Structure formats: C-alpha cells, structure tokens
Automatic annotation (TrEMBL):
Textual note on the cofactor: Binds 1 zinc ion per subunit.
Binding site for DNA: 92, 111
Keyword Zinc-finger recorded: yes
Keywords from the named record: DNA damage, DNA repair, DNA-binding, Glycosidase, Hydrolase, Lyase, Metal-binding, Multifunctional enzyme, Zinc, Zinc-finger
Assembly information from the UniProt record: Monomer.
Lineage: Bacteria, Bacillati, Bacillota, Bacilli, Lactobacillales
Xref: InterPro entries: DNA_glyclase_Znf_dom_DNA_BS (IPR015887), FPG_cat (IPR012319), FPG_Glyclase (IPR020629), FPG_N (IPR035937), H2TH_FPG (IPR015886), Ribosomal_uS13-like_H2TH (IPR010979), Znf_DNA_glyclase/AP_lyase (IPR000214), Znf_FPG/IleRS (IPR010663)
Cofactor(s) the record lists: Zn(2+)
Residues of the signal peptide: none
Highest taxon in the source lineage: Bacteria
All copies of domain Formamidopyrimidine-DNA glycosylase catalytic, residue ranges: 2-114
Protein name as annotated: Formamidopyrimidine-DNA glycosylase
Ribonucleoprotein keyword on record: no
Family: Belongs to the FPG family.
Length: 286
DNA sequence: AGGAGTGTTAGTAA
DNA sequence: GTTACTAACACTCC
C-alpha cells in the first residue's frame, strides 16, 4: 500500500510511539527479510536505542544509538504496529523488536515483499544502490522546475513509468501517478521529452501539492494500509481516477477508463487526458 | 481457476 | 546507454 504519503504517515506514528525506546532483543521469523543474516542482525540490535526515524522516498530509516541505521522498505503490504509484550502473534508477523518497556514493535507483511537492512549510519547510499540513485523529494524546494526540464527533456520514456522511476522523483507510486496525471490533464502515454514547459510546470505543482495533501490526509487506504496506530488513512476519499474506472470524470463526465501501461493498471479520462499526437496518427477522426 | 494487487529488481531483446 | 517487456518475489482477494 505504501507510497510516500503512507510511509511518511507511518514514520510520524512510529516516532510518537517508539522514538526513545530501547531494544531488548529481536526475533526474526522470516530470515530472507533481513540483511545481514538474522543472527548478526538480531545480535547487533540488542541494547540499541531508537533515537529517531527518518524517511527517504519510500524508505524508512530507523536511527539507532551507536551509529546503526535500519533501512526498511514496506514494498506492497508491509506494516508496523506496536503491541504489548506477549500478545498473540498473527500469521504474517515476520520480525519482532522486543522493547525494554514491555512493548513490541512488530513488522507484518502478508506478501513478504518488504526488506530490512542494517547498516552503519552514513553508509546507506554505499550499501543500497537505489538510495544512492534516489531522485529529489517531491517538495517545493527539492523538486525544482529546472530539474524537471532537464530530466524530462532527455528521456523519451512515456510519462507513467517515468514518474514511477524513483531515480527521477522520489516517492510516487501507482496511485499518485495516476492522480497527478489526471490533475495535470496529461495522458499517461505521453513521452516525457514531449511535455511542454507549461505542462511540466503544472505537473510539478500538482505533484508537490498532491503529495502534501495526501500526507495531511494520513495517506490512502486502498487495500490494507494502516498507520502505526492501526488506523486507516483518509485520502482514498480524495482520489479522482484511481479505482474509479467506469465512473464519470469529475471535470467532464466522460467515463474514466483503465488500461495497462508498463504492466500497471492505469486510470485516466480519455477526454481530459487525450492521447499524445504521435499516438493519434492513423486514428480516424471526423 | 485465473487474474490482479500500493513495489522493486533481474534478465532479455531490440 | 535506453527503452520495453517478462518473470519473480508470496500471498490474499474477487
């Protein structure tokens, strides 16, 4: 479930719940999930204090005492929650961080896609290529129009997978890409380097504003996302196209369609987001 | 039974 | 080097 707004929502919840807590010991029930090997992973964490929790793109970065950082990616269904010591362990709980205050920080992940890496603080980029190559955060200061013009201008990749590429802009996923393209009236099949300066400017503003709004709404719950407090997000009520196939476009009434683009379900309004010129060649018009 | 799902990476081909 | 498509990861839900 987690794109940047959901990961940020989790980060804020976890900060309230476990920042300042100290690890007593750690149990790993699905060893493939962690690196280095579970034995080293668990041994290194004993007695460490969770000093703070950062985020970069869709990665959570738990900062521990003694210059240790846990890099955690939730992938599709990863979730953290905090439970009293000894509560029943659900089927899909894969890692438990036992805290010294009789609570447990638990990682749950139905599909087991999530991954954790324990590294020395400061070596994150060396240890993880995707962190080293991560594009700017979608904020007013980090995502400049000049940057947008430069990177879009040199790629002929169509804009949907372009925006999903974390090395271009950090944190966007399938839901918010569809939403910002609808807000910007850009067809998902448009090649990145054919967008006009005006379109890039509009797209940039919509990305920045939409991500900020989604964070304010505590993220989007479409399948099973919940915050660290076990609550759902609110932003699913603010979606315009994702999950709205067959419904009328809020702007023009045309039926929202769903197609496959770059192997991902893609929702858009065929009237507000017309196909780019090079795709319309050969189409019969009146 | 078959397909799709909020993500990412590896492999292959053009 | 770039783009595009497939498979894989593992599991649930419709």
């Amino acid at each position: 479930m987690p794109e940047l707004p959901e990961v940020e929502t989790v980060r804020r919840g976890l900060t309230q719940l476990v920042a300042g807590a100290t690890i007593d010991h750690v149990d790993v029930y699905y060893p493939k999930m962690v690196r280095p090997d579970a034995e080293i992973f668990t041994a290194d964490l004993i007695g460490r204090k969770i000093e703070k929790i950062d985020r970069r793109g869709k990665y959570l970065l738990f900062r521990f005492s003694g210059d240790l950082t846990l890099i955690s990616h939730l992938r599709m269904e990863g979730k953290y929650d905090v439970q009293p010591e000894g509560s029943p362990i659900p089927k899909h709980t894969h890692v438990i961080f036992h805290l010294k205050d009789q609570r447990e920080l638990r990682y749950n992940d139905t599909r087991k896609f999530g991954r954790m890496r324990l590294v020395k603080t400061g070596t994150e980029a060396t240890e993880l290529k995707s962190l080293a190559q991560m594009g700017p955060e979608p904020t007013e200061s980090a995502l400049t129009l000049a940057y947008m013009q430069r990177v879009f201008g040199k790629s002929h990749k169509i804009v949907k997978p372009f925006l999903l590429d974390q090395s271009k802009i950090a944190g966007l996923g399938n839901i918010y890409v569809d939403e910002v393209l609808w807000l910007s009236k850009i067809n998902p099949l448009t090649p990145a380097d054919t967008l006009t300066q005006a379109q890039l400017s509009v797209l940039r503003q919509n990305i920045i504003a939409e991500i900020a709004r989604a964070i304010q709404g505590h993220g989007t719950t479409v399948h099973t996302f919940s915050t660290a407090f076990g609550e759902t997000g609110d932003f699913q009520n603010e979606l315009h196209v994702y999950g709205h196939e067959g419904e009328p476009c809020e702007r023009c009434g045309t039926e929202i369609v769903k197609i496959k683009v770059a192997q991902r379900g893609t929702h858009f309004c065929p009237h507000c987001q017309p196909y780019p010129p090079e795709m319309q060649e050969g189409l019969v018009d009146d």
